[in-house]
Amino acid sequence: MNDRICEWAGCGRQAGRGWDVDGRSYCGPHYFPGLEQAFLAEYAKWDGREPTDKFKNLFSRYAERLYPAGGMPEKLSQGRIEARAAAWKKIPSGLEFIIERHLTAYRWSGPVKTVNQEWRFGLQTKDLLLVRQKDVTPRKLRVFATLARPATPASSSV
Ligand SMILES: [Zn+2]
User: Fold this and answer.
1) How far is the CA of 95 from the centre of ligand 1 (A)?
2) How far, in Å, from the CA of 8 to the mean position of ligand 1?
């Protein structure tokens, strides 16, 4: 039984499971505003160097909630941003980061392409913008693509 109370000022409703933000509990309607407030406070304190894990967690959760039903652009996800985003940069309008992506050209086979995507997040616009994408083609990726090819001949199926 969850008897915690939402910590949003003046709310008093029961807090929900999984709606904790930085140690505070919120009800459903106050989860997003609580998250936004916590992220903006971290952003204000951020010196522009490698952000803390807490910052990455709050930002990725915040950005995820701005896109309903998991519809972040280019199939970005909260987990990917939190774990794999690098080269974070604080800019006047918000922030930028780079993330390595492995794009598959076809659904189950075909070449896998590695790219570095540079993303910009605007605090005012509240959206993620793909600024540029650069190809990365390390040789080991070709090996990976070869190994990933199914061993069964295509003719044996159906
Ligand atoms: Zn509340």
Assistant:
1) 29
2) 5
